[in-house]
Amino acid sequence: MSPMSPQPPGPRHSALAVRRQGKYVRKELRKRLNLEEWILEQLTRLYDCQEEEIPELEIDVDELLDMESDDTRAARVKELLVDCYKPTEAFISGLLDKIRGMQKLSTPQKK
Fold first, then answer.
1. Is the distance from CB of 86 to CB of 46 less than 8 angstroms?
2. Is residue 6 one of the residues assigned to a domain?
3. What pTM does this model have?
4. How many domains does the chain have?
5. Domain annotation covers residue 111
6. Is residue 4 part of a domain?
7. Angle at 104 between CA 99 and CA 86, to 5 degrees
8. Residue 3 near residue 74 (C-beta atoms within 8 A)
9. Looking only at Cα atoms, what is the longest distance across the chain?
């Protein structure tokens, strides 16, 4: 290939696509981080305790996103919060509002 010949469009286009995808992934990660911080804040209020004292429970956002309806999601979160003595309806409603439109964060597949 001579120094004057144009570069094929493939690699440059691929690099741009990767940058766009990276920006999209960072945006989704930021949304997820903000959601997790919000969840921790709400759980400390619901359980009336410090973050370190929150009962061991895992609200898996990807699991919720896999579910087919808000009713199913709400039932799952209510099940996780079964030992909470405060009303959980506002938290569940807020959580469902916040995850609406979010994307699952899939882990990269190894080749």
1. yes
2. no
3. 0.74
4. 1
5. no
6. no
7. 35
8. no
9. 74
CB-based burial label for 15 (10 Å; 0-12, 13-18, 19+) = exposed
* Tokens 């896999």 -> residue: 66
| Residues 19-62: tens digit of each pLDDT | 667 777 888 899 999 999 999 999 999 999 888 888 888 999 99
Q: Which long-range contacts (CB under 8 A, 24 or more apart) does 84-92 make?
A: 84/46, 84/47, 86/45, 86/46, 86/47, 86/48, 88/46, 91/42, 91/43, 91/46
Residue showing tokens 């997820």: 32
Helix orientation angle between 70-80 and 89-99, rounded to the nearest 10 degrees:
130
Task: Enumerate residues 6+ apart whose C-beta is below 8 A from 103.
Answer: 28, 65
Q: Which domain holds residue 92?
A: 11-99
